[in-house]
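Q: Convert this sequence to structure tokens.
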Amino acid sequence: MTIHDDPSFHEAFSDLVRTAYADLFELRGDDAWNFTRNQLTNYLV
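A:
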């Protein structure tokens, strides 16, 4: 979290999210970025 350049931060943070939720991204691909809060909640419970 020491990256202050917005594009670089976005790329690094999205890599962290993809790694943490690899199963979600394997299942839904890039569409997972567009999930609503309800869709994410249903997936995670």
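The two ends are 28 Å apart (CA to CA).
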